[in-house]
User: Fold this.
Amino acid sequence: MITADEVKKIALLARIGLQEDEISKHQKSLSEILEYFEQLRTVSLEETDSFDGVNMLRNIYRTDTVLEQSEQTQKQILENAPEQKEGFLQVKSVF
Assistant:
């Protein structure tokens, strides 16, 4: 079973503030999770087929198509935009 000190250390590393009454709850939960991992460790994979799921994937591309919009629709969109510049929607810089 995980100790209360270990729970406090994990909470500190994860930058999660825990109240004293929460420590015992998380102590029990984390212990159950680790016990489950121990059960998984005992599972035999000898008779299972390998799964190369990632290698079976392929990219699916579609062509970009331009949908023409009327000037009225463009004006309505721009009127509802919080900011616009030179006929385009203006958004905050991402980088």
In short: The radius of gyration is 27 Å. The beta strands are 84-85, 88-89. The mean pLDDT is 87. The first helix runs from residue 4 to 13.
